[in-house]
Amino acid sequence: MTLFVTSIKTPIGTLNILADDQILIGSNLSTIAALNAGKDVKVVKTIPVISDLISDYFDGDLSAINAIKVRQSGATFSQAAWKAMRKIKAGKVISYSDLAANAGSPAAVRAAGSACANNAIMVVVPCHRIVKTGGALGNYASGVDKKEWLLSHEGFF
Fold first, then answer.
1. With b meaning 16 or more CB within 10 Å and e meaning fewer, what string describes 39-65?
2. Model pTM?
3. Is 127 a catalytic site residue?
4. Among 127, 130, 131, 150, the one annotated catalytic
């Protein structure tokens, strides 16, 4: 199976995306190599539909990324947490403990944090919308400045 990889220039840096046909399976701001380690990939100029929807998001259509199908491997709780993250509307945030509850395990606050840290599909699976109880931004794998920019872009600030 050949996967497709491309890079998109965004206001927060170059977003590298990896897809299996029309299903996004990875996105990051680091390197394409980090996405495709050990996989058979083809570098392409754009990935139909996905590239356009991500560009639309950065151009101001904040709901565009909701139409992107995603898949990533992970434990049952992480899957539930990632699904719950996708239900958070742009411009809104919830706490790690709210995420744990929304994922079906209110006591699993640390696991909710781990799900955010292990999220392989940044922006589209919006872990940037998860904050600490009390509203502090908390961590973000690509840097808190990127998290702050994304939340500002979405109208949170």
1. eebeeeeebeebbebbbebbeeebebb
2. 0.94
3. yes
4. 127
